[in-house]
Every structure is written in C-alpha cells, then in structure tokens.
Amino acid sequence: MDSVDDRRLLGSALLECLQCCDAVEKVSLTKALGAQWAARHLRPEYGDSVPLDLDQPGLPNNLQLVPPRQVPMRALGSEQGRIGLLHAVAHIEFNAINLALDAAYRFRDFPEAYYDDWISVAVDEARHFEMLADRLSAYGATYGDLPAHNGLWEMACATRHDRLHRMALVPRVLEARGLDVTPGMIKRVQSVGDLETVAVLKIILQEEERHVEIGTRWFNWCCQSAGVEPQSTFLGLIEKHYGGKMKAPFNEPARMRAGFTENEMQAIKRLAQR
C-alpha cells in the first residue's frame, strides 16, 4: 500500500505568510517556511481551494498607506529624519518579503529551482526587515509609526497575470533601483554618524545584488520560453509602464554583477537622457 504524503502544501504555507499582518509574526513564519522548504518538508503543491488573487497582502493594522507625495521627508541631521529614513527602507523590505512570497505563490509553472530562489529571497528580505526594525527600536520607533506609500505592491498587481512582466519590472526595475540609490544613502547616513545603520545598509546592498540577478535569470528564462529577445522585450516593457523613462544615476558595477548586459546599460542610460 502506498504511504500517504501528509506534508503541508507549499501553497498553504505561502498564503499564511502573505496574509499575516503582524510584522514580527510574518518574519518568523517566512523564516520557518524557508527552512521547511529547504528540507523538503512541504509538498510542492497548491491545492484547488487556495485563492490566487491577493489585492493586498498582510500589513500591520496601524500602517497608513498614502500617495508617495504625502510621505514626509526630513533631513537626516535630526533624529526624526533618521527615523523617517529607517521607516521608509523598512517598508521597502517588508514589501519585498511580500513580493518574493507572491512570486512563489502566484506563478505555478516554473522549475523547482525558481521556488528555491524566491523563497530564499523572502527569507533574506525578512532578515533585512528585522535588522531595520531593530534600528528603529533603537530610536524608540516601530514599523507602522509613519505613513508609507504602496508603489511596490501596485506594480505587483500590474504584473499579476504575466510572469515575464513580473520578472522584468519588479526585480529588474524596482529592486535594481535600490542598487542605484543605496550607496548614496549609505554616505548620507555615515555623515551623521549612525554607523550601526550604515552596517545594515551595506549588508542589504550586497545581498540585493543576488535578488536582482535571480530576477534577471528568470526573466531570461521566461523570454526563452516565450521565444522573445530579452533586451528589446525589457525596453518595451519600460516604454509601456514607465513611458520609456529611467532615472539616473545607475550603479553600473552592481547592475552588471546582477546580470544586466553592457548593451542594456547603454540603452538604459539613453532612456535616462530623454
């Protein structure tokens, strides 16, 4: 008689993490998911009853989402300014947990290595958020104390029905932007003497290169599967979703290590000059 496989479904574990609203619990659940998946204690199945579309993943109940221009900006010379920066970056990393979980939850026709990659990214992002939450706590603040915008998740919704679009526009545009702006952020934080936050930002910058590279690799896989040329497809999506505009400066060495080609970088720089 065949034995019954009573392992929990991957889809159920991913959905639990996505829907969790408590930040501390979401980090804990995501880390546990990573360990369970790595040990193959989860069945790589989703089940017929698992709902696919999520308009909004779980966020802290006290977090106020506002349009980007309503997020307050303050100079880093003040404690409130440093709290504001930490809160903004923590919000990015919290969104990144949900984005990585959603990439594994929503798109169900990839090789198993895809799920290895994006679940590992979710675990990294959970750790990044945890480090930033600790820095906020050192200033007497917590995630959810300040308003934040929802731009990252809005792009997840815009690409929810196309895996190629998701791999192009979330990791290779939005997350790659982090590679561009974090070095300047590190210099600004260093100038006000917050070396503990500098150390956290350096870890995030280094590890985000791998995340963008994972996005590049699976974008190229999607292009090959669809029989389309990657560079022209990528630039076409930037035209469609961003009006063909990109914002300089670019961290070329980091982007190249993350899989961007020299031709792509030249094309992106031309877009920034429009």
* Overall tally of structural domains: 1
CA distance, first residue to last residue: 68 Å
Biggest sheet: strand arrangement: 1-2
Shape: globular
Report strand %.
under 5%
CATH class division: Mainly Alpha
* Element-by-element helix/strand order: EHHEHHHHHHHH
Residue stretches low in confidence (pLDDT < 50, at least 5 long) are none
Helix content: 55-70%
Instruction: Tell me the total number of β-strands.
Output: 2
Explain the overall architecture.
- The structure is a single chain.
- Helix 2 (23-38) runs antiparallel to helix 4 (112-138).
- Strands 1-2 form a two-stranded parallel ribbon.
- Helices cover 66% and strands 1% of the residues.
- The termini are far apart.
- The protein is globular, with a radius of gyration of 19 Å.
- It has a single domain, classed as Ferritin.
- The protein is an all-alpha fold and 274 residues long.
